[in-house]
UniProtKB/TrEMBL annotation:
Superkingdom as given in the UniProt entry: Bacteria
Family: Belongs to the sulfur carrier protein TusA family.
SUPFAM superfamilies: SirA-like (SSF64307)
Name the UniProt record assigns to this protein: Rhodanese-like domain protein
Organism annotation: Bacillus thermotolerans
Domain UPF0033: 7-31
InterPro entries named among the record's database cross-references: TusA-like (IPR001455), TusA-like_sf (IPR036868)
Length: 75
């Protein structure tokens, strides 16, 4: 997957992963893809809901070695 920007929110607690994701997304153009890495377990629900409410598409998410990874396409 071609990623346009990466947000490293590992070690940050809510709401910081969302804050960093929103700031990074604001700098992207429609259709571009943001990859987010987080360790806060609440990020799964938070980022899924945030993407939907903002008109973005959560393309994929997975967990690898305790790190939650998300790929979000800007709407």
């Amino acid at each position: 997957m071609n990623v346009d920007k990466l947000v490293d929110a590992k070690g940050l607690a809510c709401p910081m992963p969302i804050v960093r994701t929103k700031k990074a997304m604001d700098g992207l153009s429609s259709g571009q893809i943001l990859e987010v890495h987080a360790t806060d377990k609440g990020a799964k629900n938070d980022l899924t809901a945030w993407a939907a409410s903002g008109g973005h598409s959560l393309l994929k998410h997975e967990e690898e070695a305790g790190v939650l990874k998300f790929w979000i396409q800007k709407g």
